[in-house]
Amino acid sequence: MLRLFIANKNYSSWSLRPWVLMKELSIPFEETLVPFGGDARYRTFTAFSPSGRVPCLVDGTRVIWDSLAIAEYLAETEPRVWPRDIDARAWGRSAAAEMHSGFQALRERCSMCCGIRMQLEAIGPALEADLRRLDALWHDGLSRFGGPFLCGAAFSAADAFFGPVAFRIQTYGLVLSPEASAYAARLLALPSMRDWYAAALAEPWREPAHDEEIRRSGKLIADLRAPVS
Fold first, then answer.
1. Would you state the CATH architecture of domain 2-80?
2. pTM higher than 0.85, yes or no?
């Protein structure tokens, strides 16, 4: 069976992508969660991941690291990973790749933390530009292929790659157009996303470096996570 190594569900946006993809497509896998561990993290993660990062997928003797590489590996045996239509497939791959390598201000200002609610001190031009591009990208896919997902009627890897963005929108109260906001809400309502969210809130771990980075972005409104015992 496939084995997927991930890190804390509260923080690890990269881990969420293949996890939610495999859950929504009912691809069987064994989950192995290795919490972030400060300075020892790299040494701990290199025990299973050549890059020392998550996610990492193990299939027998094959090791596939990086979320985009994992999606493409899964697509070799599961055609539902990408749309059947060649135009939708090309668009979806482009959108996922753009998310994979872009939206730097969104990543830096709005680090993923499922269990808290924040009010940003200010949006700023870089984040505003990312939000405008995100809105335009989602509108393009939804209007071009008819929705309710980015590439049409079926959930695909393109949607999985924006799952972490939906959590960021929820955490930071980011304002998008009604159509884009509705799409984010659809992602949050997926069974896999709800399962991930519930597990994130229940996690007993905290990563001080992540929490400090997040709190520097603005005012903490609420912390919904279970208390650390």
1. 3-Layer(aba) Sandwich (3.40)
2. yes
